[in-house]
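Can't paste images in this forum, so I'm doing it all in text. The chain is below; anyone willing to post the predicted structure tokens underneath?
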Amino acid sequence: MSNLVFVLDTEKRPLLPVHPGKARRLLNAGKAAVFRRDPFTIILKVVVTATPESITLKIYPGSQTTGIALVQGEKVVLGAELTHRGQSLKTTLGSRNELPRSRINRHTRYPQARFLNRTRRKGWLAPSLQHRAEKTLTWVKKMLQLAPIGSIVQ
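Text version of the structure:
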């Protein structure tokens, strides 16, 4: 798998990614400019009329990490791994929940019991799952802007 550079046309529509050497030649010739540094993307200064082939975005979900791959036929264009904060969110929320308990054990004043506020809204997800879904969606949206994606496979 090689590192490829994302390419946008003059109207910011995604084209097929190119090899870094070709991107460097385009930049040195003045035919392109740097659009974004992470992930590295160039924007062409000349008009391109050809329509690019479509690329498949593949997502491999996991509890600790999620894999993302851009595949064109049998060739992997880009491979990435998203690391999730699920475990750290769990420990942070757990330590926050322990504070009232410690106040009770020290016989100090503490807030009144709130036992009637335990209903969850419709569509509620655990914070760790919500973070995982939102982070994956964020990167899928980024990839849709940078590559000519025709289909998404999970």
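Residues 87 and 128 are 7 Å apart (CA to CA). The longest strand covers residues 75-83.
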